[in-house]
Each structure stands twice: as C-alpha cells, then as structure tokens.
Design goal:
The complex is a heterodimer of chains A (350) and B (171). Chain A has six helices and twelve strands. Chain A is of the alpha+beta class and 350 residues long. In chain A, the strands form two sheets. Chain A has a six-stranded antiparallel barrel. Chain B has 171 residues and is mostly helical. Chain B has one domain. The radius of gyration of chain B is 16 Å and the shape is globular. Chain B starts with 10 loop residues before the first helix and ends in a 9-residue tail after the last helix. The chains are: A alpha+beta (350), B mainly alpha (171).
Chain lengths: 350, 171
Amino acid sequence: MVFREGPLGDLKVPLTWTAAVALIVAAVIAVAFLLADRRETLQDHAYGVTRQTVDVVAKPVSGAIAAPGRWTGLGVDFFRGYLFTASENRRLKAELSEMRQWRDRALALQDTNDRYKALLGLRTDPPIPMASARVVSDSRGPFANTRLADVGSEKGVVVGNPVLNERGLVGRVVGVSTTTSRVLLLTDIASRTPVMIDRTNARAILTGDGGPNPKLEYLRGVDPIQQGDRVVTSGDGGVVPRGLPVGAAVKGLDGRWRVVLFADDAAIDFVRILLFKDFAQLADEKQLLTRSLPPVTTEDPQASILGPVPAARTGAPSKPVAIRPADAPQTSPKPTLPKPVPPPAPEAAR
Amino acid sequence: MSLGGARPLNPFRWLGGPLLACVIATMLFSAPIRVWGLHLPEPVFAVVPAFAWALIRPSILAPFAILLLGLFLDLFWGGPTGLWGLSLLVAYATVLAARNMMTGQSRAMMWVWFAGVTAVAMAAGFLFSMLDSLATPSLIGVFWQFLATALLFPFAHRLVDRSDDADVRFR
C-alpha cells in the first residue's frame, strides 16, 4: 500500500496503546461537555439548538412508539368503564352530593373574598393562559427526570413556564423548540421550586433528588409542618404563580420531610403548560419601556420640609410658603456667589 | 500466520449494529406508559456494548462510539451533557484494564463481572451528577436503575459470543 512506502511505514504502534489514547481523548471531550453544560441559559447557541434538534427529531419517533401504549390504555379504560359502570355511578353520586356542599361554601367564600378585595382595592393576578400538550417521552432515571411535550414556541411556550396536570404541578419548561418542549420534573436532581406549607405559610424549597418524593429544604419556623400538610407553590421569586397544588408532606425514612406529589396520581400522558410570564405581566410593559422621563424638579430652598425657619435665627418673622409646581417661577434661578467669611476677631479667638 | 476459519470483525456488525439497537431500545423504554401506577424500568442499555466492546478487543473506534452513545442518552433523557458519556467511558476503561482476568470465566462469573462494571458506571454517574448539580441523587433510584441494567447481561454475552469466531490476532 502507498502509506507503507513512507518513512513511517515500519512504525508499529501497539493496538492497546492507541486504544488507550483514543479512550483518553474521548474522556477529555466528555469532561469538556460536562463542564460546559448549561441546560437553560444557552437556548440560542449551538448547545441549545442541538438539544432542540434532538427533541424535534425525537418527538415523532417517541410519539409513534408511545401510541400503542396510549391506545391500549384507552381500551383498558373503556373496558373497565363498561364493567364497573354501576359501582362507578354510585361512587360519583356520593362524590357529587359532597361536592355540592363544597360548591356552596366556595361561592360564599368567593363572594366574601370579592368584597374584601373591593374594600382593599387589591390588584389581583390576571388569568393565566395555558396550552395543553401530550407527553411523548418520559425519562425516569436517578440522574435525569424530564418529559418531552408536543407543543412549543408556536403555542407561546417559553423557557420557565410551569407545567401541571389535572392534579398538581409537574415541573417547568427548560427547553423549547417550535413544536416541542422539554419539561424538567420536580423530581429531577436539578429542580428547585419555592413552596409553602398551606396551613402555616412556612416557606421551603422543594428539591428533587431523582427519587419519587422530592425533599423540603430550608424549612424554618417552630413546628412549621405536620404529616399530611398540603404543600403549594409560594410564588416567591416569580418563577411560578402562587398557590399551585404540589403535594402532601410526609416524613421520609431518612428523617427528612418529603412531598408525595399530587401529579403522580394523574395520567402521565397529558399536561397543561401555563404561559406564565413572571410578575412583570402585571405591569404595563409599554409604559415601562417609554423613554420620555418626567422633568426633574428640585426643592425650593425657600420652602424647607422642616417648616418655617425660626425668627430668632433670621432676625425677621417669616411665613411658611407653600409652593406648588404650577405657581413656581419657570425661570432658572440665578447662581449666587458665596460671600467671603470675615476672619474672627482676636478677642473672640481668645 | 494462518487465520484458518477466522473472519475479520465487521465494524458495523460489532459497533454500528449494537449502537443502533441501544438507541432503539432506549427510545422504546422511554414511552410514557404506567401499569397499575408503576413506570417501565429504565435500564442503561449502553452499558451492554461498553462491556462487550472492551472484552472483544481494544479498539480506537469503540471509545468514540461509547461517547456518541452517552451523548445521545444525555440529549434524549434531558440530563447534563457529557454525564453518561463520561460514566460509560469509565466503565469501558475498567473492563479494558481487567479484560485479562475476565476472559475464560464461566457465564455466572461473567454476570458478576457485568454487575460490577454496571456498578462502576452507576457510581461514576452518581459522583459526576453530584458534582454537577451540587446535590445528592437518590440512592434508591440509583439502585433500581443498577438492578434493571444488571439484568441485561444476556445481551452482552450474546454480543461477545457473536465475535468469538472472529479474527483473534488482537486477543
């Protein structure tokens, strides 16, 4: 062969050595990838685009793989519904009669709440629009807990949007392409969510660890939590709106407080993405972006905020003068030169 | 030296085919299916080729194929990029260093070796994940994934067996 005729033709490198070099090079590349990893902050860079491309390609493939499972589930549900119609009917009637009482109570509370809001002049949160999505893939390992949903930026989804199912909070969006969204679950090791205990308003950070029940960290206060307490989002930091149901508090085997997620009780394949845009949506963005600032007005030296100057110090009585911006002279004040201070008398110095 | 009945290793047969099979199996097991409230297990199929490739022969291509497989897992599962690439390479390096001790062992003993290598990969993943996220992953979750992966040894055994009658000059 041609390369055998070169000066390096007789060079024979042991295969084990070359394999070891290849292994080291591959490991260095992997370390570089791991150190450079930024899942949420590099959406527009090559890193984010690569992830988005993988998600876009994975969506139809995973959707096709998940379809038979979904159809089987629907068939089983239909069959079960057909078999257990009578018992289901009895259960639903009992639940309905109980819910009617709750409805009356909720209406009364809503009425009271509206009156309080009107009295206090409270500015309440506007309704949050949402997008429904189907989950096409679900990773459940100890090092990554994410789901791939089949709606993306075309429906207004952006990074950071909270994701719920019909029972409670599931996670938040960490990557978006045109047609897909990557949802970081509350159980992921990188997930941190500000929550509060509904009964005591005690704040905590819900921290995922790859297991089914995330931990409650930084829980403060005297006896802030009890077994079974309802945990909801606190809205602190503006990442998620306040009051979204998360789960129930339980004491883990390791002695830590953990949360049994409400979302685990619901079906896995449908979610709702709240198109929540932080607290900034309460403000008028156009007004905030305006460039014309109001004129700067300076304090009139004749109208001190301390009130009238004592007559003993000025030597003549003076009235407090109320200056209104409309009455104030429009001419600019003349600059006054400071008067020279006379040197003290020798007697006074002594 | 006569090769006799031995045939050279076809790169697609021993590298490309298993790589593709791992990708498909990973996608299959990521389907959002829950039966009686239980999810499907999530084994790391890529440990199978990482174990078998190092055992079949030292190679220049295999580490990069493992890196590629690891990057796919990270992107597809939505984890930190490089986590599984590095963890699988650690497992591959372990087998490469210990392959002289492994060859010729019984099937049961090889299963133990495979479980050990899986444990090395999971421990590496645990450590790198802890350093990356500054949090401790759930040991129970790690154990379940280890158990699901350790049960994949028959696939690794089959892959090694398929290359048994291949060119043995590098062994």
